[in-house]
Amino acid sequence: MKSLTSFQGIVLMVFGVAALIGLFVFASYTSKGGGGSTVGTVVIWGTLPQNDMNNALAAASQTSQTLKGVSYVQKDESSLPADLAAAIATGHAPDLVLASQEDLLSLAPLLTPVPLTTLSARSFTSAFIAGGSIYTAPQGAGYYGVPFLVDPLSLFFNRAILSSAGIAKPPASWEAITGLVPQVATLTPARAVTRSFIALGSYANVHDARGILSALFLQTGVPVTTPSASGAVVASLGQTGGTGTPPGEAVLNFYTQFADPSKVSYNWNASLPDSQQAFLSGDLALYLGYASEARYLAAANPNLSFDMAPVPQPATATNKADYGLIYAFMAPRGAANASGAYQAAVLLTNTAEENAAAAATGLAPASLTALSSAPTDPILATAYSEALYSVGWLSPAPAATDQAFSSMITSVTSGSANALNALSATAQSLNALLPQ
User: Fold this and answer.
1) Which one-letter DSSP state was computed for residue 186?
2) At what angle do helices 8-23 and 338-348 cross, to 10 degrees?
3) Which residues lie closer than 8 Å to 380 by C-beta, 6 or more apart?
4) What is the C-alpha to C-alpha distance for residues 170 and 145, in angstroms, rounded to an integer?
5) Fewer Cβ in 10 A, N or C end of the chain?
């Protein structure tokens, strides 16, 4: 992100006095969002589903009448940066952008950070989950986004399969999963998999492999990428020269063992169907997916008896961590209604509005106040608890990250590289994709 810092002074001047007038509403997050604020017409571009956000805005407008002029347009994640750049260039920029941290580096050159004079570090950290700090702009420029919703990685489990195997509760640790594979997985004498315990080991047919690997790295203290002193983002994958097995190597060895026919944990391979479809068809006991997928799973197979639990943790971990998609409202350059857009963002991050949005989308709020009271819905309650310790990392565009991670996993499972060499090659690939 070194290249981003050079234009931030220009960005702030372009945004001008109108933005600063709008930004003052961020000074306090204790506001109930009532009143006399004039939001006007605000157009949000985002990557969340159109119907879900329409429902969220409709519910929010019942609480805050000033939000009636706020509308939402769903955009394809892969084309959002290009679409936004073109809209800014032609004078038709939206007023807000709603996307996760996976798109932040691609969008950052097109955004105006909220300065610390408007939203202080104390106000930000007191209002939002710790994972929201990923939106911190470099060199004290403020924040690229105001966190709104979180979609944490979760563990879905087939009740019937676990009960039949004598397993009362889904495993809470990764180590427990390894030990339970032989108890549930079904293999032919030729080692063909007919029923799986968990889908790990390959990449293309593991539905949320990018998120799963991210969770494993972050849980073991591997940050994947880190900002340097200059503001650039650098990938290392935690390769250190200490004694013992480096954490990144341990993660790769753990993940790929489930696709190694020589291991007792073998129960998955690249020839099997997509993991989400395998879970829906009843051929997979545990499915790692995002909390928002619960509604799709229930609708796609009403006869499937499943539930959702928190994502497993390392057995020796002292603090929980999970990978989550942390969605935030971001201010694009050239917004026609900058003042109203900021007011809308503040209103939508109030407790009542965030809870309404969470109920409409199946995600969890990003504000600590909203998360302090769990909903009665058990799926949402789990998502709320996981949101508190959800984190992310600054990554290239999702498709580019998938390509790098897929090559890493394939090189290990095919035997063309060991875990350490695969990590080194992946770090080089990621660094080539990151802005310098």
Assistant:
1) E
2) 70
3) 291, 358, 359, 362, 364, 374
4) 35
5) C
Backbone angles phi, psi at 76, to 5 degrees: -70, 130
Residue pair 350/329 in contact (Cβ under 8 Å)? The answer is no
Amino acid at 162: L
Number of Cβ within a 10 Å radius of residue 46: 23
CA dihedral 368, 47, 59, 376 (to 10 degrees): -50
**CATH code for the domain in which residue 61 is found:** 3.40.190.10
d(CA 142, CA 391): 19
The dihedral through the CA atoms of 332, 334, 339, 341 has a sign that is negative
Q: What is the CA radius of gyration of the chain?
A: 22
* Biggest distance spanned by C-alpha atoms of the chain: 73
Contact (Cβ atoms closer than 8 angstroms) between residue 325 and residue 100: yes
The token pair that represents 103 in the structure block: 């798109």
Q: Which long-range contacts (CB under 8 A, 24 or more apart) does 7-14 make?
A: 7/109, 8/113, 8/137, 8/139, 8/141, 11/111, 11/112, 11/113, 11/333, 12/112, 12/113, 12/115, 14/112, 14/333, 14/334
The verdict on 135 and 198 lying in the same domain is no
- 161-197 per-position pLDDT tens digit: 999 999 999 999 999 999 999 999 999 999 999 999 9
Query: Containing H/E element for 15?
Result: helix 8-23
Do 401 and 257 lie in a common domain?
yes
Angle at the Cα of 320 (from 402 to 358), degrees rounded to 5? 70
List, as one string, the DSSP characters of 268-323.
--TTSPPHHHHHHTT-EEEEEEEGGGHHHHHHH-TT--EEEEEPPB-TT-SS--EE
Find the domain containing 379 and state its range. Answer: 2-150+324-391
**Residue (of 150, 30, 32) closest to 98 by Cα position:** 150
**Tokens 């017409």 sit on residue:** 41
- 32, 119: one domain: yes
Residue-wise pLDDT tens digits, 74-105:
999 999 999 999 999 999 999 999 999 999 99
Q: Please report, as a single letter, which amino acid is at residue 406.
A: S
Q: How much is the pTM?
A: 0.91
The pLDDT-based confidence of 229 (bands split at 50, 70, 90) is: low
For 10, 54, 249, 354, the CA distances from 360, given in Å and listed in that order, are 38, 9, 40, 10
**How many residues in total does the chain contain?**
436
d(CA 52, CA 68): 16
The half-sphere exposure of 83 on its side-chain side, counting CA atoms within 13 A, is 13
Residues 423 and 277 in one domain: yes
- DSSP H helices, 72-227, are 80-89, 104-107, 121-127, 159-164, 174-184, 209-219
Cβ–Cβ under 8 Å, residues 422 and 412: yes
